[in-house]
């Protein structure tokens, strides 16, 4: 019932911005907008290869034509003039979007020259393109606009479409309607592109190469899902086999999974009921963090013995188990004050999940456990193991402090940066795929994804006017080679002031008819062939200026929306740059213009640093609360220090090993440290709980061995993953499991007391 209720209200999302702190600087605000909604996040780069140029060009045209009418595809460009970019209802505006007609391009001489060119065009292969539009557009202004709206630094053309410099691959740029953080939308768009290509290529040997943020996101999601499924399957098999071997009972694996299943269902239900949507990362990380719940039934199984009911055994273990659970939940609960919605979701998931798993182990599981089990304290092998362990030297205060000092010194003097602020270095995308993407971007002249020019203004019209004033400076930078090209919203929708100025220069209907009659008389066209043309110019003279809102539902809308960002208190116009070679020169050229060159890489690093700061403060608070919780439970400063020491030393050990291996620490390593600390605290608490009773010591040893092996297996599997995020969690936790186990034995274990006959009969 709980799973059904959670499923009905569960709405998985993929917007990574929910796992980022609120942006504070203008550059950070811009970064967050661009990551999700910007044109760079929506851009897919395509190449068709494997045939001669004529075949590739034909398939490029056919594919572009199909994609322009495909739902979910906002724009498909391949170098050919796409007249569909201007819908019929907006075509009269061509005389306001272009300066040519209003600057003398509609005089009698210019019209006569244009009509002579159209005569030639109608006798050429272009006739099929020109004939449908010539009656209303004899100057082909729509075609000129479509060509002008091609990327500023376009690749070479072969047979009218884009090709790579070597002429072996046809190129296309596709902009999706789905945002960059919409994995389902990106997956749908990719499927549509591949379906369209399969229809276009028929039986030809050509192949499609597809790159870009959306393609990479879908590929990574698929690989992550595959590896997570494989790891989950292997871990489940190992868990079942290990529990069967450890307890010689087919019921143990089945019952052992119940608290973990309870944790997952209750955690999901709590997040689904408390938040509007559940982030996919919350689910992925949440199930990793609640994995410690599988230890709860193991402790219950290992501490069972004849003559003591499962209820009594669970009650005796509850103070120790409850302390571990409370400490772990307190650590995760601090994420509630992090100010990051994704971390708040993670806190609710783990706290509710672990709490419900512990309660299930305490109050439900005893009813299902065999009341007459084999006492593991009677195992000769375990007794021999414990006898050998008792001969191990203890790690006293002085050696412990020396070890801590050495680890701190390793941290302080390890070469390289301590923190990793560049999340792009965690990308699981293969190097050859990144190289292919970089090559296609270079061939297509795609905009630089690091630098943007921003212009802030009080409203959209002011932003368009301000960006238009930048055009001379940008043209000068292009002439000097500082940039290869640029793009801005005013290329597609000039400001209302510019459009009104062009309107004022358009000829009246009488003047245009007089000049057109003179031009037609010197051509083979009929006298009334261009009445639609006169109507369109008359409409343009009196029309209201076109605004970005008027582009809604057209292929131009997505591009303009990505370059013009309205806000409640104003608007920001963006200028994307292509082939930027010297940021300092560009920044200097923009001085005094009101525009600013933004470095999004710097903004991303500052945002990551802010995020890390919030997490570290939360962890510091968690540490204080954890110490207080353990002190309340144990009531002895000496015992508290002994229990916390393995966890503290293991944390230092993990950090030192990572730094000495040249690893720069990132946010996922912090998650691993939290996991390792929680596991280490449990090991130490149960060794402390065993006291000096040799039988309880053997039972605790068995429980912790089984717990550590089940945990070690799953995190070693994560550490072998090809996904860097999973490796960043798996390897440190695996190291932490081993170190916590050994250090707990060296620091926390008690010397065994002699066992009398009476004591042997007394339940613990």
Between the first and last Cα atoms, what is the distance in angstroms? 38 Å
Radius of gyration: 34 Å
Which geometry do the CA atoms define? elongated
Which parts are unreliable, with pLDDT below 50 for 5 consecutive residues or more? 4-9, 756-764
The number of helical elements comes to 32
Quote the CATH topology of the domain at 382-413 and 636-764: Multidrug efflux transporter AcrB transmembrane fold
The averaged pLDDT comes out at 83
Q: Summarize the biggest pleated sheet.
A: 5 strands, antiparallel
Any idea what the CATH superfamily of the domain at 382-413 and 636-764 is called? Multidrug efflux transporter AcrB transmembrane domain
Oligomer: single chain
Kindly state the percentage of residues in helix: 55-70%
Describe the structure.
- It is a single chain.
- With 764 residues, the chain is an alpha+beta fold.
- Among the domains are: 1-10 and 249-369, Multidrug efflux transporter AcrB transmembrane domain (Multidrug efflux transporter AcrB transmembrane fold, Up-down Bundle), CATH 1.20.1640.10; 382-413 and 636-764, Multidrug efflux transporter AcrB transmembrane domain (Multidrug efflux transporter AcrB transmembrane fold).
- 61% of the residues lie in helices and 8% in strands.
- The chain has 32 helices and 13 strands.
- The strands form four sheets. Strands 9, 10, 11, 12 and 13 form a five-stranded antiparallel beta sheet that branches. The protein has a four-stranded antiparallel beta sheet with strand order 3-6-2-7. Strands 1-8 form a two-stranded parallel ribbon.
- The longest helix is centred in the N-terminal third of the chain and has 35 residues, at 213-247.
- The radius of gyration is 34 Å and the shape is elongated.
- The model is unreliable at 4-9 and 756-764 (pLDDT under 50).
- Keywords: Cell membrane, Membrane, Transmembrane, Transmembrane helix.
- This is MMPL family transporter.
- Residues 109-394 form the Membrane transport protein MMPL domain.
- It comes from Cognatilysobacter lacus.
- The chain crosses the membrane at residues 228-247, 254-273, 279-296, 317-340, 346-365, 395-419, 615-634, 643-661, 667-688, 700-723, 729-748.
């Amino acid at each position: 019932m709980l799973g059904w209720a959670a499923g009905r209200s569960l709405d998985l999302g993929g917007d990574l911005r929910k796992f980022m702190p609120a942006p504070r600087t203008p550059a950070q605000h811009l970064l967050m907008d661009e990551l999700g909604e910007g044109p760079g996040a929506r851009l897919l780069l395509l190449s068709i290869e494997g045939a001669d140029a004529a075949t590739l060009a034909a398939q490029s045209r056919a594919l572009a034509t199909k994609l322009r009418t495909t739902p979910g595809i906002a724009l498909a460009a391949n170098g050919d003039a796409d007249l569909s970019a201007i819908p019929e209802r907006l075509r009269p505006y061509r005389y306001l979007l272009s300066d040519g007609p209003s600057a003398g391009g509609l005089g009698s001489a210019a019209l006569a020259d244009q009509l002579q060119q159209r005569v030639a065009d109608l006798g050429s292969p272009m006739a099929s393109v020109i004939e449908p539009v010539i009656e209303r557009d004899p100057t082909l202004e729509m075609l000129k606009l479509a060509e002008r709206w091609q990327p500023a630094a376009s690749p070479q053309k072969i047979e009218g479409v884009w090709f790579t410099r070597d002429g072996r691959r046809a190129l296309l740029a596709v902009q999706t309607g789905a945002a960059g953080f919409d994995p389902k939308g990106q997956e749908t768009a990719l499927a549509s592109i591949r379906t369209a290509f399969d229809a276009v290529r028929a039986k030809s040997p050509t192949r499609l190469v597809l790159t870009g943020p959306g393609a990479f996101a879908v590929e990574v999601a698929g690989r992550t899902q595959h590896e997570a499924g494989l790891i989950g399957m292997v871990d489940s098999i190992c868990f079942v086999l290990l529990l069967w071997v450890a307890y010689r009972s087919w019921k143990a694996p089945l019952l052992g999974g119940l608290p973990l299943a309870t944790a997952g269902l209750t955690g999901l239900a709590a997040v689904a009921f408390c938040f509007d949507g559940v982030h996919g990362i919350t689910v992925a990380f949440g199930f990793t963090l609640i994995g410690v719940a599988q230890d709860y039934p193991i402790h219950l199984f290992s501490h069972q013995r004849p003559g003591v009911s499962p209820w009594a055994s669970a009650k005796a273990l509850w103070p120790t188990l409850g302390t571990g659970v409370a400490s772990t939940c307190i650590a995760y609960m601090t994420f509630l004050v992090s100010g990051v919605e994704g971390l708040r979701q993670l806190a609710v998931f783990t706290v509710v999940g672990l709490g419900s798993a512990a309660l299930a182990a305490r109050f439900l599981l005893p009813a299902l456990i065999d009341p007459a089990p084999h006492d593991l304290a009677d195992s000769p092998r375990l007794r021999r193991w414990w006898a050998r362990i008792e001969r191990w030297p203890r790690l006293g205060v002085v050696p412990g402090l020396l070890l801590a000092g050495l680890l701190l010194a390793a941290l302080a003097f390890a070469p390289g940066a301590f923190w990793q602020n560049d999340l792009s270095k965690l990308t699981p995308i293969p190097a050859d795929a990144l190289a292919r993407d970089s090559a296609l971007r270079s061939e297509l002249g795609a905009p630089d994804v690091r630098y943007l020019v921003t212009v802030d203004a009080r409203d959209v019209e002011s932003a368009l006017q301000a960006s238009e004033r930048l055009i001379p400076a940008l043209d000068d930078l292009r002439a000097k080679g500082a940039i290869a090209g640029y793009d801005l919203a005013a290329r597609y929708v000039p400001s209302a002031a510019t459009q009104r100025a062009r309107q004022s220069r358009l000829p009246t209907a009488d003047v245009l008819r007089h000049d057109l009659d003179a031009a037609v008389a010197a051509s083979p066209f009929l006298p009334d062939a261009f009445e639609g043309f006169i109507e369109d110019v008359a409409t343009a003279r009196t029309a209201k200026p076109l605004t970005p809102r008027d582009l809604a539902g057209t292929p131009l809308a997505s591009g303009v929306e990505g370059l013009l960002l309205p806000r409640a208190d104003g608007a920001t116009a963006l200028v994307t740059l292509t082939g930027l070679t010297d940021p300092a020169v560009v920044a200097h050229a923009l001085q005094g213009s009101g525009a600013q060159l933004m470095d999004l890489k710097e903004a991303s690093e500052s945002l990551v640093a802010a995020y890390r700061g919030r997490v570290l403060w939360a962890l510091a608070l968690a540490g204080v609360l954890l110490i207080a919780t353990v002190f309340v439970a144990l009531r002895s400063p000496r015992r508290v220090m002994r229990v916390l020491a393995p966890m503290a030393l293991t944390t230092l050990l993990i950090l030192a090993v990572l730094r000495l291996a040249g690893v720069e620490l990132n946010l996922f390593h912090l998650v691993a440290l939290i996991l390792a600390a929680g596991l280490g605290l449990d090991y130490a608490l149960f060794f402390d709980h065993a006291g000096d009773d040799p039988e309880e010591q053997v039972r605790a040893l068995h429980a912790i061995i089984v717990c550590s092996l089940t945990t070690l297996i799953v995190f070693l599997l994560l550490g072998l993953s090809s996904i860097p995020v999973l490796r960043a969690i798996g390897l440190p936790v695996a190291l932490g499991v081993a170190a916590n186990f050994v250090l707990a034995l060296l620091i926390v274990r008690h010397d065994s007391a002699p066992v009398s006959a009476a004591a042997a009969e007394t339940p613990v």
